Amino acid sequence: MIHLEKFSLSNGLRVVVHEDHSTPMAIVNVLYDAGSKDEDPNKTGFAHLFEHLMFGGSVHISDFETPLQMAGGENNAYTSNDLTNYYIQLPAENIETAFWLESDRMLSLAFSEKSLAVQRKVVCEEFKEHYINKPYGDVWFHLRQMAYQQHPYQWMTIGKELSHIENASLKDVKEFFFKHYRPQNAILVVAGHVKSAEIKLLAEKWFGDIPAGEKYIRNIPPEPKQTSPRKKEVKSTVPLDALYKCWHMEDRMSKGYYVADLITEVLGGGGSSRLYQSLVKEKKLFSNIECYQYGTVDAGLLAIEGKLVKGVKMEDADKAVEEELEKLKRDGISEKELTKIKNKTESAIAFEDMSVMARANSIAFYELLGDAALFNSDRDKYFAIDAEDILNYSRKIFDINNSNTLYYYGEK
Amino acid sequence: MVKNKKSEAGKINRSITPPIKEPVDFDIKLPPCEKVTLSNGVEVYMVNMGAEEVVMVNWAFIAGNWFEQKKAVASATNYLLKNGTKKKTAFQLNEHFEYYGAYLNRSCHSETAEITLHCLNKHIDEILPVVAEMITESVYPQEELAIYSQNSQQRLKVALQKNDFVAGRLIDACLFGEKHPYGTYNNLEDYAALQREELSAFYDQYYRNGRCVIFVAGKIPGNLLEQLENIFGKLPLRSHNSPEKEIIHALEPSSQKKQLVINDPNGVQAAIRILRPFPNRKHPDFQKVLVLNNVFGGFFGSRLSANIREDKGYTYGIYSYILNQVRESGWMISTEAGREVSDATINEVYKEMQLLRDEPVDEEELQMIRNYMIGTVLGDLDGPFQVIGRWKSLILNGLDEDYFYKGIEIAKTISAEELQQLANKYLQPEEFYELVVV
Questions:
Q1: Residue B429: pLDDT above 90?
Q2: Where does a domain end: A161, A176, A207?
Q3: Residues A175 and A269 in one domain
C-alpha cells in the first residue's frame, strides 16, 4: 500500500501527491486525457505530433530543455491511443522548476511555425524508422483496420499515413491545444521526496490561475460486436511468414480485462507457457510466438503472433494455434498453472513498484481511470480470479466470430 | 479593492526562472557495497537497500566471446544454460522459475557471460539450488541445440533486413577487425555449424570450473549469504580475478575509412555510424571526454540533437557515446536519418566537431552540462539495482569508488579550455570510420 493525497484546483486540475522519502528525487508527471482516439480520422497521428510540439517553447519560456537540465532534471513523454503523458525527474530541491515549466506550457504554447515545420519532419522520420523501414512494421496498421470498424483504435498512434502529419497546420495545433490541453482535462502527479503541504502551495501558485477552458466531452462510437470471422492476407519482402491473430476483449475496468491479462500469461508468458512449449519446442512450427494484450482503456484486443519455421504452411500453423485454444476452452487450466500466473503477477507488480517514476505514471493512469487509489486496490482483482473465470472467458473471446486473422507472407 | 490587491500580490512572473540549488553543489554519495568472499574464492558484492521484498542476484562468469575458439559458441553456451540439466528438461527449468514468479535471464558479452535472477525474497530458497544445478549439471541436449540453431538463423534473417542492425555489426568490425571479439559477428552458417560437444567443453571450462563473481542487490534476506556459501561456495568455481593465461586477440582495423553499404534498395532511411578508436576507462582522458561527449551528443539536450533533430528535423534521434568495452573502446556517433538527408546529416556532425575544436564551450552551456550530469547520477542512484550496476561496472573494469568520485569531480570542475584541447585531440574527422547503410 502506498500513501496518496488528492485535491483539485478551482480550474478543475486534479492533483495527486505520493511522498517517498527514500529517494532524493522528485517526479512531476502531467497526464492529459487526450490520445489518438480523440483525433479526426482525416488528421491522424496528431496527438503524438502534438506531444513533440509541447517541447517547442511555451508562452513565457522559449526553451524547455535548458532550464530543466540546469536544474539537474530529465524528462520525456509518450502518447498512446488513450492519453498523453509528460514526466520530469529532478532533484527534489529544484521541483519548482518543473512546476514553472509544466504550468507555462499548460497555460499556452508559443505556437511557433518553425517548431511545427521541424517536428513534422522529425515525426515523419520516426514513422519511417519504426513502421516503414522495419520488417513487419506495418502489421498493426492492417490488424487495427480489420479489428476496429468504428472505434478510433483502428489507427495507430503514429497515424494512418505520412501525409496526415505532413499536412498538419498551425491552426490544427491551436485547436487541439485549447480543446484538450486544459486543466480540467489534466492530472498532475507529484511523487518522491516532497511534502504534500508544499505541493499544494506550489500547485496553486503555478497552475491555479490557468483558465479552466471548456470541458471536452468525448463522444466515441463503441465498436459494434463482431459477428463473423475476419481474415486478410498480405505479401511483403520479409524473410519469414508470420501469423497474427487477435480477438476483442473487454475494457480496462471490466473483470474480463484482468482475466484476459492472465490468459496471455497462460498462453504466452515465458518458456513454460503453452504456446511456446507446444508450438516452438514440441511441434516446431514457430520460431517464436507471443501472446499479449494492449491494456487500452476502451475495449481492447488480445493478440497472438508468431513467425513460422521456414517450410511450415500457414494453414497448419494457424490450425495448431486454434488447437491450443480449443484445449484451453475445453479443459481450462490446472491449479499449478493458476498459482504460477498469480505468482508471476505478484512478482511483476513488486518489481514495477520499485521505481518512483513508474509509480507516478501508474498513479496518473489510475486517476484517469477514475481514482488514483485504484493503484492500491486494482491488483487485488487479479488475485480474485479463479480457474473457472479463465475457462469461461476463454470460451467467450476465443470464438471464431470474434477472431481477426492476418496471414503475413514473406518471400518464398 | 482588497480582492484586486490580493491577486496582484499573488501574481507570478512566469518569465523568470525559479531559483535552483545548483546540482554541482550536491554532495553525492555512492551507497556502500559489502564484499564477502566464499570459501572457494568467489567474491560476492552486496548492496542492501530498497523497500520491496525483492532481490536480484547476478552471476558474472568470465565466459564471454573473448574466450571462444569458434564463433557463436560462447553465446550459445550461455543461452542454453536453461535448456536442460541432468535432472530437468528445458520445460521443467522454465516452469520452476516461472512458478515462483522469478525471472532468470542469460546474457553474453565480450568478457563476461551472465545469469541474472530477479525474484521475490520469499521464494529464493526454491530458486538458488536450481541455479546451481544449471551451473554444475547442464547437459546441452542435441534437440535443444537444433532448435536454438534454427531459430537463431531465422531471427538473424529478419534482423539483417534492418539497416541499423547491419550498420551496428559492420562498424564494430571496422574498428576492431572482424576476427576480434569486439568486432566479430555471427553469420547464418556460424549457427548452423554449432556442435554439442563444443558447447559442453566450453561449459565445462568456463562455467562448471570457471571464474565467477556474484552481485546481489535489493532488500537482502538475512540468510542469503549463508545460502550462497552453502550452495555456491563449495563448487569448483574460482574468483573472477584468479590468474589464467591471457588470451590475446590482435586488433585489425579496416584500412577503408568510409563505406557505403546497400542493404535495402527501397529503404527510406540511412543508418549512419561514425566511430573512432578510444582508450579504456583507465586512461586519464576517459572521464574528461565523458563531459565533452555530453556537450557533443550524449543526450537529448546535446549539440548534435539540438542541431540535427531539433533545428533541421533530419532524424528522430542522434546520439554519441563511448563504447562499453573493457580493454579498448571507441567513440561513436549513431543515427537513422532520412535517406535524402544522410549526406547533410554527416556534414553537420563534422561541423559540430569543428565547432568544438575551434571555440571553447561557453560557461552557461558548460554549467548546464555539469548540472545535467550530476542530476543524472543522482537520479541513477535511485534504487538497489541501479546502485549495484554502478559498482559492477567499477569492479569488472578493475576500478574502485575513488574512480566514481573522481568522475563527479571532473564533471564539476573541468574547464572549457581543457574540453577544447580534448576536442582537438579526439574530434578529428580523419580518425573516424564512417559507415552508411541504406
A1: yes
A2: A207
A3: no
The answer to whether the CB of B79 falls within 8 A of the CB of B29 is no
| pLDDT value of residue B6 | 38
Partner B, chain A 123-162, Cβ-Cβ below 8 Å: 123-126, 128-129, 132-136
Q: For chain B, which residues make up each domain, given as ranges? A: 34-239, 258-437
Could you tell me which residues come within 8 angstroms of residue B56 by beta carbon, excluding any fewer than 6 positions away?
B116, B117, B118, B119, B215, B216, B217, B218, B384, B385, B388
ipTM: 0.93
Mean pLDDT over A304-313 rounds to 97
pLDDT digits (tens, 9 = 90+) for B217-256: 999 999 999 999 999 999 999 999 999 899 999 999 999 9
Instruction: Dump pLDDT digits (tens) for B343-399.
Output: 999 999 999 999 999 999 999 999 999 999 999 999 988 889 999 999 999 999 999
Give the CA distances from residue A279 to residues A247, A324, B147, in Å, rounded to whole numbers and listed in that order.
Answer: 20, 9, 12
Are the beta carbons of A355 and B383 separated by less than 8 Å?
yes
C-alpha cell at A50: 502534438
Give the integer Cα–Cα distance in Å for A38 and A219: 9
A239 contacts chain B (CB < 8 A): yes
User: B293: pLDDT confidence band, cut at 50, 70 and 90?
Assistant: very high
CATH number (domain holding residue A44): 3.30.830.10
Which residue in the set B119, B157, B301 is minimally distant from A239, CB to CB? B157
pLDDT digits (tens, 9 = 90+) for A17-51: 999 998 999 999 999 999 999 999 999 999 999 99
- Side chain identity, residue B191: Y
Whether residue A238 is contained in a domain is answered as: yes
Nearest to A273, CA basis, from A337, A354, A334: A337
> Pick from A162, A154, A152, A153: which is nearest to A127 by CA?
A162
pLDDT grade for B4, boundaries at 50, 70 and 90: very low
Domain count, chain A: 2
Q: How far is B398 from B241, CA to CA, in rounded Å?
A: 9
CATH architecture designation of domain B258-437: 2-Layer Sandwich (3.30)
- Interior angle at CA A189, CA A188 and CA A195, nearest 5: 120
Asked whether residue A221 is assigned to any structural domain, the reply reads: no
Select from B151, B269, B371 the Cβ nearest to the Cβ of A69.
B371
B330-336 mean pLDDT: 98
List the Cα angle A259/A263/A266 in 5-degree steps. 140
State residue A82 phi and psi, 5-degree precision.
-105, -30
How many CB atoms are closer than 10 A to CB B126? 14
- Strands (E) located in A80-180: 84-91
Q: Which domain holds residue A128?
A: 5-207
Q: Which architecture, in CATH terms, is B34-239?
A: 2-Layer Sandwich (3.30)
Residue in chain B nearest A338 by alpha carbon: B99
Alpha-carbon distance of A105 to A62, in angstroms, equals 10
Q: How far apart are the first and last CA of chain B?
A: 69
